[in-house]
């Protein structure tokens, strides 16, 4: 696939977001796009995926089977999760039976099979994101474009998406992705490009950062939390009284139930159907049911900022752990 002197701006007189971008992307392999906020990464991905057309220059050689996960999923469509996936599978050329089977398989893989019949508008942010990712994987895309696709997924679904990316690569596809976490598929990219000042240039991968300690914060509160929290913590319900444990960011490490706390009200994340919780207009997650405890696992570098947001929203910090040590 080739971009020749591609430029893109919004509106007739808007500032150029990208200009004179010439790139040859291989038909197979993993490509990472990096850049500071607002530099034009999403704009580049939309051009690659064919969602937007260049204002100038041209894009050639895009595979017919191209799939895209947008940074923001348009969740307010009048479909159930399964019907939406079947519909998109059909659009992508699958027969109805194959589309239904694959929709079920992908929902299952991402741990969302229980929401197959839930209307999209009633899905939590995390489950919506699972549907957004599933729609892109339905028809074995030859080019898969992922814009912060891991954001909002729980630990298991993030790992499943890593696996799905590797499966596409093994099948000979190209995967182009943006993710704010430098550890995402670190060391696996075949090519890296940086977006800066409207230009796109090859960059060298910064060596994978040494594993940093994780901090696990158990907190409870009734005020809505911002949709975007510092450090993009993995947010999970605090373990229930039945001993079911939440998985932590570290993968296999398992969080123990919080001592002395009855977490019956905390089985679901805010926003999950059935809790009486709903996303607010400002993107916050309204938390109108009985307060429940959440476990937020975050890189230690962001824990102070995260604690600051929780305290500012009048959340109570029940428990704080660093690498399994109570602090
Ligand atoms: N539809 C639009 N209309 C007008 N300006 C837009 C539109 N979409 C993006 N922009 C502007 O284009 C610039 C690049 O946006 P883009 O979303 O591509 O950046 P980004 O690097 O992906 O940012 P982030 O890391 O914050 O997601 C920004 O200044 C943004 O405000």
TrEMBL record:
Keywords: ATP-binding, Nucleotide-binding, Transport
Region annotated Disordered, chain positions: 211-283
GO molecular function: ATP binding
Xref: Gene3D superfamilies: P-loop containing nucleotide triphosphate hydrolases (3.40.50.300)
Ranges of Basic and acidic residues composition bias in the record: 253-265
Pfam family, one: ABC_tran
Domain ABC transporter: 1-222
Superkingdom classification of source: Bacteria
Protein name: ATP-binding cassette domain-containing protein
């Amino acid at each position: 696939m080739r971009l020749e002197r591609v430029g893109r701006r919004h509106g007739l007189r808007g500032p150029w977001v990208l200009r004179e971008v010439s790139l040859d992307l291989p038909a197979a392999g993993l490509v990472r796009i990096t850049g500071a906020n607002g530099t034009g990464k999403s704009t580049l991905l939309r051009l690659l995926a064919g969602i937007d057309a260049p204002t100038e220059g041209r894009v050639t050689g895009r595979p017919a089977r191209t799939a895209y996960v947008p940074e923001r999923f348009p969740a307010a469509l009048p479909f159930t999760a399964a019907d939406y996936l079947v519909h998109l599978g059909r659009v992508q050329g699958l027969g109805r039976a194959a589309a239904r089977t694959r929709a079920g398989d992908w929902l299952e893989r991402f741990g969302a099979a229980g929401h197959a019949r839930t209307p999209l508008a009633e899905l939590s942010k995390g489950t919506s994101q699972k549907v957004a990712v599933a729609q892109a994987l339905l028809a074995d895309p030859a080019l898969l474009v992922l814009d912060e696709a891991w954001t909002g997924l729980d630990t298991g679904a993030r790992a499943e998406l890593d696996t799905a990316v590797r499966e596409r690569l093994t099948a000979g596809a190209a995967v182009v992705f943006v993710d704010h976490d430098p550890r995402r598929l670190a060391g696996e990219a075949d090519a890296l490009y940086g977006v800066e000042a409207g230009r796109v240039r090859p960059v060298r991968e910064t060596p994978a950062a040494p594993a940093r300690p994780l901090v696990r914060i158990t907190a409870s509160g009734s005020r809505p939390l911002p949709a975007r929290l510092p450090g993009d913590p993995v947010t999970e319900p605090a373990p229930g009284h039945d001993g079911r444990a939440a998985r932590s960011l570290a993968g296999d490490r398992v969080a123990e139930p919080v001592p002395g706390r009855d977490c019956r009200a905390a089985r679901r994340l805010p926003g999950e159907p059935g809790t009486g919780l709903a996303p607010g207009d400002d993107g916050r997650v309204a938390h109108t049911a009985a307060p429940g405890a959440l476990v937020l696992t975050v890189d230690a570098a962001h824990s102070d900022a995260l604690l600051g947001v929780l305290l500012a929203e009048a959340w109570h910090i029940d428990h704080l752990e660093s690498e399994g040590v109570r602090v």
